[in-house]
Specification:
Elements: H1 2-13, E1 17-21, E2 29-33, E3 38-45, H2 48-51, E4 59-63, H3 68-76, E5 80-83, E6 87-92, E7 95-99, H4 119-129, H5 140-147, H6 151-163, E8 167-172, E9 175-180, H7 183-193, E10 200-204, H8 211-218, E11 227-230, H9 231-236, E12 247-251, H10 257-265, E13 276-280, E14 292-294, E15 297-299, H11 302-310, H12 316-327
Parallel strand pairs: 3-4, 4-5, 12-13
Antiparallel strand pairs: 1-2, 2-3, 5-6, 6-7, 8-9, 10-13, 11-12, 14-15
Helix pairs in contact: 4-5, 4-6, 5-6, 11-12
Length: 331
């Protein structure tokens, strides 16, 4: 994330100033202004909780995707930020920059030949990362059976994960021995590759009022489909932390038009500001892995909650970090 922020800062500052990583300084980046003046920058990932901590006058918040409201909030407070979606605002001594419409850094893909974070292969990752399997040593067929995929998928997935030094895979006679060695790095790679907005969605104006009471009253409506809560609504039933207003839920449908049809059947008007958001899962199969019931309502797994929340703009990262800590997902 820091390297992406530096790329956007270079775009925003050119040609009047230059920026470089601050390897030799006690800072993350150094801006060199015309005339020889230098400014040290502290790049810090934005969360609501981080904002309450003491920070330097030269802190620059780094946000994966900032809402327009959050951008305006930063500007009013004269707080510098880099929005990885393509915007930079710097309010620093001798330097004021306000740029939008910058070219976002290209996302790096984990592999050109095989994606370990795709739907079916992610079932292998989900199985490896289950807390009950911490430090477990697997055989290929054993892992394939547990994940519900073929041995070939396990072999290709593990081969890719070896490239990132997050698994240890070795031969023992005719069998392989596979062990997850760095779940934190694996999660970091996964959250960098995953984008919750790839789930196709429809927002509707349902008669919500209190969202949990609405779901308790209305859960029978969804029973003809496989469904589960995610994002802040799902996390609130597992590890409550951040405030929230919108309900996001996955609904198993074969095509996006069925979300609209479902909304019409319930007489829920469609609108971008609707408080109920129906999602057709990008992860068609693996999104249901580890689904459980909390307070009588279906919720996706803790891992899926973290993936969805990580880049969600409304206190998502904060909620994800709280979920990781409270549920001891990474040991």
């Amino acid at each position: 994330m820091e390297s992406d922020a530096l790329l956007l800062l270079k775009q925003a500052l050119a040609p009047t100033a230059q920026i470089r990583a601050g390897e030799e300084s006690n800072c993350d980046a150094v801006v060199e202004l015309k005339g020889g003046k230098k400014l040290s920058l502290d790049l810090e990932a934005w969360t609501e909780s981080a904002a309450t901590r003491r920070r330097s006058a030269n802190t620059v918040w780094v946000v994966p995707r900032a809402t327009r409201g959050l951008r305006e909030r930063f500007r009013k407070a004269q707080e510098s930020y880099v929005d990885l979606g393509g915007a930079v605002f710097l309010s620093l001594p001798n330097l004021l920059v306000d740029r939008e419409g910058l070219q976002p850094p290209a996302r790096s893909t984990p592999s050109r030949t095989f994606d370990p974070f795709a739907d079916r292969s992610s079932l292998v990752l989900r199985t490896l990362m289950e807390p009950k399997h911490a430090n477990r040593v697997w055989g290929v067929r054993e892992l394939a059976d547990a994940a519900g995929v073929g041995p070939a998928t396990v072999t290709r997935t593990i081969r890719e994960l070896e490239r990132y030094d997050v698994v240890d895979a070795r031969r023992s006679g005719r069998e392989s021995e596979i062990r997850l060695t760095d779940p934190k790095r694996l999660l970091s790679l996964w959250t960098g590759a995953y984008d919750w907005t790839r789930n196709q969605s429809v927002a509707v104006h349902a008669p919500i009022g209190d969202p949990i009471r609405f779901l308790e009253r209305s859960k029978g409506i969804f029973e003809g489909h496989q469904w589960a809560l995610t994002l802040q609504a799902g996390a609130s039933l597992v590890a409550p932390h951040a405030t929230w207003e919108r309900v996001h839920l996955y609904l198993e449908v074969s095509k996006p038009d069925e979300l609209l049809e479902f909304a019409r059947e319930q007489e829920w008007p469609v609108g971008d500001d609707g408080r109920l958001v129906l999602l057709k899962p990008y992860y068609r199969d693996s999104v249901w892995h580890g689904r459980r019931t909390a307070n009588g309502l279906p919720v996706v797994s803790d891992l899926q909650l973290v993936l969805d929340l990580w880049n969600y703009p409304l206190r998502g990262r904060e909620q994800a970090e709280h979920l990781l800590a409270s549920q001891h997902l990474l040991g």
